[in-house]
Structures are given as structure tokens and as C-alpha cells.
Specification:
Layout lengths: L9 E10 L5 E8 L3 E5 L13 H4 L4 E5 L17 H14 L5 E6 L1 H12 L4 E7 L10 H4 L3 H9 L5 H7 L3 H9 L10 H10 L5 H10 L1 H6 L11 E6 L6 H9 L4 E6 L6 H4 L1 H9 L1
Parallel strand pairs: 3-4, 3-5, 5-6, 6-7, 7-8
Antiparallel strand pairs: 1-2, 2-4
């Protein structure tokens, strides 16, 4: 295991990389002081997704914002499945490589699922979990994203079509990405143009579309992850946007699968709560 370039306290967020296996290097940024807190983002985004949330949390925690495998500037390996177990395995290795303990996990969407299953696998290292808009309810390819609007339903559904799917992913434009992601906001105007441009630039990396389509193709793994929630010993706070893609019975099912969980609903907020409502998210975590 290769040690990170930086160790100990780091007051200004500076990106670095940690090699967690022969084929996987994860980019992360460390900032703030205090007990460790790990931030895990949504599908198709990266650590900059949390740019408004990190400064708020860094007042109390040492924050590790991590690019999930294949996302952001983390490495891409086209031989890997990019399902929930694969993502979880690499995040657990990250935690152990840095020897982090009493960790607070904060994840949004698939990041929330990985936070919960990580807590189930290594309960001795996890102190608390904050799961934002947990993406664990899919019954078909891209189910959650496709609930955003008719356009997202059409485009995301087309990505599963053989031959056409890879072509459609490769020719996506910023306008298309905005329309799809806009379906995850209570107010689509709150999707910052510069953040969207960054996501689009990263999405143009070689082989990125393989990862994007694989995460969607393994949709069963995100729903199956609920079976692991029984092993979560740490207290869990579920935070849902009022306009999240999940439905109320699905949220209650997730809560019921956990031993020690409470739930909050953020008004006028959609699936991307860390961007749309970072202050309220931070208030819950810091309270």
C-alpha cells in the first residue's frame, strides 16, 4: 500500500492520491481539524460536488472528500464491475490505509449506500452515518434517475441498448447533461453552470462512459445492498430531499432495515441536496 503524500492535519484542501490496489488510485482532498469524516458523492459527479458543504463541516471535522473509483480523477479500470461491492471494497481499503477510526460517513445517493454498507462491514471503525437520498430502491436500469423527468427517462433508458448505448453516452452534450441532472433538483436553476461544466469535462475522460454505464447496469447491486444494513451498529441519520426520486414507502423501508435510524426531510430540495441545500445538510450533521 502506498502512503499518501500528506499525513496529519491539513488546513487547506489539496488533492492527492492514494493507491488502494494495483489498479485503483483514489483522489481525495483533506481539510479541517477534528475527528475524521468521509464524504462520498453521487453517480456522475466528484469531490467538487461537495464544495459548499466541505467548508461548513471542516469547522468540526477533518474532512476527506473522496472521488469514488472511476469517478472524478480517480483511476478507471475497464475490467472491473463498478457495482456496490466493488465500490465498498475500495472505500474500506482507503479507510484502513489511512488507519481512520471513529469515522463519520456522509454520502449522497450511491455514496449513501456505500457509507451504510461500509459501516456494516467495519463497524469498529465507524462512529456515525449520515445517508443523504439513499439510492437503494431501483427496480430497473437507471430507475432513480429516470424518475427525474421525461427527458431523463428517455436518455438514461437508451443507454442500456446494445451498440446504441455507448454511442449515446459518448455524444452527450452539456445541454443533455444539464437536462438530466436538472431532474434531480427541486429548482433546476440551482445547478451551477461551472459545476456542470466540470462534470462534463470529467465525463469526457477516456473510458469514463464505461464506468457511467456500468454503475447503471449493476442496478441490482444498489438495491441488494439493503440486505447488509442489518450489520450497521452506528447511529444512522437518513436525510431526504422532499423532491428526491425515492418514494416515501421506499424511504420507510430503508429506515426499517436499520437498527438505530432517524429521518429528516428537507423542504424544497431534490436528490442533489449537498448542492441545493448544503447549509441545512450541514446543520443536521453538526447538531
Amino acid at each position: 500500500m502506498i502512503n499518501p503524500k500528506q499525513n496529519g492535519k491539513n488546513h487547506s484542501a489539496e488533492p492527492t492520491f492514494l493507491k488502494v490496489s494495483d489498479s485503483v488510485s483514489l483522489r481525495y482532498e483533506q481539510s479541517g481539524d477534528g475527528p475524521p469524516l468521509i464524504l462520498l458523492h453521487t453517480i456522475r459527479t466528484q469531490i467538487e460536488y461537495f464544495r459548499d458543504l466541505v467548508p461548513l463541516l471542516a469547522k468540526k471535522f477533518t474532512v476527506y472528500a473522496v472521488d469514488l473509483p472511476g469517478h472524478g480523477l480517480s483511476s478507471i479500470d475497464t475490467s472491473e464491475p463498478y457495482d456496490e461491492p466493488y465500490m465498498r471494497k475500495n472505500i474500506i481499503t482507503f479507510i484502513k490505509a489511512l488507519d481512520l477510526r471513529a469515522v463519520t460517513m456522509v454520502g449522497e445517493s450511491i455514496g449513501a449506500v456505500i457509507s451504510l454498507t461500509t459501516a456494516s462491514d467495519i463497524p469498529d471503525r465507524i462512529k456515525a452515518v449520515y445517508a443523504l437520498n439513499t439510492y437503494d430502491y431501483e427496480t430497473r436500469y437507471g430507475d432513480g434517475i429516470r424518475r427525474g423527468n421525461w427527458f431523463a427517462n428517455m436518455i438514461i433508458g437508451s443507454l442500456q441498448v446494445p451498440v446504441f448505448g455507448p454511442i449515446a453516452a459518448a455524444i452527450a452534450t452539456p445541454w443533455i447533461v444539464r437536462k438530466i441532472m436538472g431532474g434531480g433538483y427541486a429548482d433546476p436553476r440551482k445547478l451551477p453552470a461551472d459545476l456542470l461544466a466540470l462534470f462534463f469535462k470529467t465525463g469526457s475522460r477516456p473510458n469514463f462512459h464505461y464506468v457511467e454505464r456500468r454503475v447503471l447496469a449493476v442496478w441490482r447491486s444498489w438495491s441488494k445492498a439493503r440486505e447488509r444494513y442489518f450489520g450497521v451498529e452506528a447511529p444512522v441519520t437518513l436525510i431526504y430531499g422532499e423532491k428526491d426520486w425515492s418514494r416515501v414507502p421506499e424511504r420507510n423501508r430503508t429506515k426499517d432495515a436499520l437498527k438505530n435510524a432517524r429521518m429528516f426531510t428537507l423542504r424544497n430540495t431534490g436528490h442533489f441536496s449537498a448542492v441545493e441545500n448544503p447549509k441545512k445538510v450541514a446543520r443536521i450533521i453538526l447538531s
